[in-house]
């Protein structure tokens, strides 16, 4: 019988082997003229199997040539330098990386950039700017729906998408009647936002901010 | 500026900007994704390499061999940092375990290597190729099993043990007694932004963009660990994505980024991977607490005793869960004791209200239990044993203490009079409803803090201090302070924080940041006012600063003109005398919670929450309220779900990610209500403010526990209160 540590070691070797098999083609990013400069001091000659992807980010066409293992999140943060989208867990557990793709919110850490060819991506930077905030951004400021601010872009992207989901009649876990149009009730709002963790605990204020934008009492 | 005598009237008392519920000045940056956190400084560091941390797969023992051949051959790899090649490293004064382990391993997921590559994907893949042979050693991982080996260790701000009168005699003689043991589990800060740093060397000078609550501590410990002069280390941390105590100290991301950048000859960025954080960094240590209370039949406490057992790595500190029991309730005969055992889990350290948060989880259930034994309303029992003096040192009064007022106001607002003291008697459909309360208590700490203030010829006031804003609202209350002091609108104030080239502040911790950092800004503004008055030939004591002007008698000069072409700069700080020795400075509150418990499944839902706080002057009711409701949320987590589950054989926290370490989400938290009582505390600082951010968590979990008891009649003394602990004893009411 092997001890737990023997198992640990053999499991590591196994994982290492499988990682190596995909690591051979890894290389840094090269971007087209529409992208800002990115880390790329490595000789192009080393690159053997990069992937190309083109999509629209916040209304602007972007083309990237990157390691196919790059998540949409890292493509945004590290390649396009749109750091408003946050990496909280990189495992789809916290919602800080929420962006809107094709009108639906997704965790951008759970999807590869190359899977989004031709798609329309909206990040927090695409919703508004400090001088011209989206109504949801302004409502978060007014209701202090944040503290440290790290989950905030994800909360706001989720909130904007939640209101559209309800308008589109998409039911949730707490919808009592799947055939009736869902209402923007307190329970619906809190259920639908529950994929976005706020460790500072601004939930009560976030609910008020979203409710105001939705035009209903919190 | 020395603060040695109680504050008198000063410009802050004008309350034209201070005390107003002003929106955060950094709000538009945070809500638009333009605030820059530790890993995000692309403009400053355009071409970093990426580091990926490898953690130890054993809890205790040593590395026999590390095979890095495959890593070195992996695409894009630029450097590998291990204890073997990092050169001689020291240990930070505030670190218990070393940040780079090897060959000795002190805890599970202690960092043992950093793999640096051109891209994150390459670094991650190559890190998976590190092959380590370990020699495991026996470790201690079970607090209950080793608690009796514990030794007395001093806690924050006090000795290990205290005693007054004859506790054992009085307890034995008391007609009504409680003797109960409570446990709190290990908990994680689980802040949303992982520990993250970018390191860049220029010659022998290091710049670290990082995420840290205490900039000056960080500079000192980075320098000490690397063995370089402090002058060669600069920390920059303008935004911190949550800390809760987890970013008080330098962690492995910062050290490894620095070492990686040195090895790679290029800037390196490192973020701790989320699944590594829970065992790699610090956590709130578990406690076992025994509480004994003796009282007369009419409810006067005659004996109160609180003993704590916790564990930590050798050299670590105890949790300090007995600290509030030294101060909260009267009673002539008292004892507290702190015992610390050696455990080989990751380092235990400060998490939001270290000591009191854990201690109040137990004490405030005990008070509820005792009230029930006495047949006295739990609020009346607390009021009956309220005290205006330090119960252990009767010569020391509290500077302000409105505990009773908090309960009275809260009872009224929450509808406490409608509570049925008989458990399990209120139903709402399938829910059995309960209401609970608990006191909130947390000390107010005085820490020196400095700032630099500059007035420009366009009347802009710029404040620079190494203070951090970890979500607390520092930017905003500092701007309010400067605006009030200099008589300019808020829009004319620029606040720059979190840079070690700025004057050293209190930093953010122990709910001391708000009062102390603004008091430091106050001191610098007083000096700037004096410089302006002197330049204009005004009597500085009489000069008024308002509406962008300086006035004295019938003379008035616009600030912009007073500043002149070159502007004026002043630097000063606040330092404290012994007002915190003469007076006990604490903050108080009362928590109220209503829960519903499903009669069939024992699912617990929090339905209503209220906190009433008395915590000195509230500098900004909007941001202060957010601190309190956020702390209430974390308290709900502590009550109902948060527990780092220990694998007692292998020695690590099993649920080490955000899926398995559960924290409250939107659906767990109802609308939260909170009230601040009017208070100013002239003993605390010229601001007359105190802390609120940690007060808000102290007592919440017990209020939830007491509400669950009121709903079900089941008393759970082992946190978290999960439905499996209720089910067996739930009344058969379905």
UniProtKB/TrEMBL annotation, chain A:
Annotated signal sequence is: none
Q: Where in the cell is it found?
A: Periplasm
Q: Which GO terms describe its molecular function?
A: 2 iron, 2 sulfur cluster binding; carboxylate reductase activity; metal ion binding
Q: Would you say which domain of life the source belongs to?
A: Bacteria
Q: Which UniProt keywords apply?
A: 2Fe-2S, Iron, Iron-sulfur, Metal-binding, Oxidoreductase, Periplasm, Signal
Entry GO terms, CC: periplasmic space
- Xref: Pfam families: Fer2, Fer2_2
Q: Where are the transmembrane segments?
A: none
Q: What is its EC number?
A: 1.2.99.6
Catalytic activity reads: an aldehyde + A + H2O = a carboxylate + AH2 + H(+)
Ranges for domain 2Fe-2S ferredoxin-type come to: 51-127
* NCBIfam families associated with the record: PRK11433.1
| Quaternary state and interactors | Heterotrimer composed of PaoA, PaoB and PaoC.
Function of the protein: Oxidizes aldehydes to the corresponding carboxylic acids with a preference for aromatic aldehydes. It might play a role in the detoxification of aldehydes to avoid cell damage.
- The identity of this protein, by name, is Aldehyde oxidoreductase iron-sulfur-binding subunit PaoA
| Annotated source species | Bradyrhizobium australiense
From TrEMBL, chain B:
Q: Which GO terms describe its molecular function?
A: iron ion binding; oxidoreductase activity
Domain Aldehyde oxidase/xanthine dehydrogenase a/b hammerhead span(s) in chain numbering: 32-138
- Which Pfam families did the record assign? Ald_Xan_dh_C (PF01315), MoCoBD_1 (PF02738), MoCoBD_2 (PF20256)
Q: Which NCBIfam families match?
A: peri_hyde_PaoC
Please identify the protein, giving its name as recorded.
Xanthine dehydrogenase family protein molybdopterin-binding subunit
What is the native source organism of this protein? Bradyrhizobium australiense
